[in-house]
Amino acid sequence: MTCLLLLGLLAVSCRREDIRTVTIQVPGMKSPRCIERVVDAVARQQGVQRDKIIPDPVARNVVVTYDSMQLAVKNIEHAIADTGFQANEIPANESAREALPEECR
């Protein structure tokens, strides 16, 4: 009986998800085409809540809600950088940046 109680307590205390929200600065996010590319890059990441990706073109940032048990902020930043945009302190991938529309460079 004690073993079952202990097992039940352990099962309840195990985390399966840890939902967090982060704001990532994306200085190159200047137009609707740029926003679309950033949102698409973020949405492709496993663990991101796709309906909770909120771009702000005025502040040039994107607010992302994600499960930190599946990915880290750095994964999201690198996904944006690999698309050609600086993300916080992560520099843009230069070859991806060159392939962006002119208004996004």
Keywords, separated by commas or semicolons:
Alpha-Beta Plaits; 37% helix; 4 helices; alpha+beta; 105 residues; single chain
Provide an overview of this structure.
- It contains 4 helices and 3 strands.
- It has 105 residues and is of the alpha+beta class.
- It has a 3-stranded antiparallel sheet, with helices on one face.
Number of strands: 3
- CATH topology, anyone? Alpha-Beta Plaits
Content of β-strand: 15-25%
Average pLDDT, all residues = 91
Short description:
This protein has 105 residues and is α+β, with helices and mostly antiparallel strands. It has helices at residues 2-13, 32-43, 73-82, 94-98, and strands at residues 19-25, 48-56, 61-67. A hairpin with a 4-residue loop joins strand 2 (48-56) and strand 3 (61-67).
What's the topology here?
Layout: H1 2-13, E1 19-25, H2 32-43, E2 48-56, E3 61-67, H3 73-82, H4 94-98
Antiparallel strand pairs: 1-3, 2-3
